[in-house]
Amino acid sequence: MYIILLFIVGGVFALGLGADMIVRSSINLANNYKISGYFIGFTVVALGTSLPELATTVQALSVVDSVDIALGNIIGSNVANLLLILGVVSIINPINFSQERGQKNQTLIVLVVTLIATVIFYFLSNNQNSNSIFLGVILVAIFFVFLFLQYRMELADQTNASNMPNYSQFVSYLLLIIGLVFLYFGSKYFIIGSQKLAISFNISETIIGLTLVAFGTSLPELATGIIAALRKQSSLAVGTILGSNVYNIVGIFALILFMKSGEFPAGSGVLMTNIIIMTIVTFLFVYKVRFGVKLLNIKAFQLTKNSGILFLILYAIYTLYNYLKLN
Question: How many domains does the chain fold into?
């Protein structure tokens, strides 16, 4: 039991330390290159914080040989990113989209990519003999188009960072890499400790896999988001979360299609329901921040404390739904 608690506590400590390094180095890189923290978060940091999802997917496909676990991981992680992590960040430090037209437009990219993934998932689950490798190539092509669009939007943005950097680019990249290593191993040992703790209380391994693993692989985004919000850098947190969602879909989903071509699960009701939920959640989020929907005393173009509380309630309902469905 002491080893289990050590894994959990040590994992949380490593996550916090790694997240602080990443936020510091990202802000410094943004100042070095005269670009926004949002862009750094959407590209470099998001790619790094998606490593746990990538590692878990490779393990699920090569060791456990389970496409369902791999798909459930990226779907659950994306839902957790939007509801849990954005909810926590909004409570700590409200996010204002009103003056950031480029940022609001970039959220549309997340929605389009999510819709494409949903269509591909539905098509493959009902057409077992289809060439999934070709669809994987399409997702990879979308990935490069996505990066190009991010770069073009950043060049057109006239509100980039203008503060002086505190240290050199080399030190910034070094801190970023070290921080990502801490995030990776921190989340890994937190998952191991939590899983062993759950098993010791006789909690179903299926429930552990579909809730704890998805939550665990979102821990880097959560830690980075909390530290960024505490440092009043919510745009960095939002960029990291949304960028991670895109990487999970166009990168890790494509990897699944490459590694398990022709082995896509047929008609998985639970996974299909979850990917529909992920799409609806993404649509509602993008619709609110892009078009400024005001609902239940929640301000338009903003994610405030009220928004955060609502997001956390929805995430609790989502988790409870999966628990009852699978129990």
Answer: 1
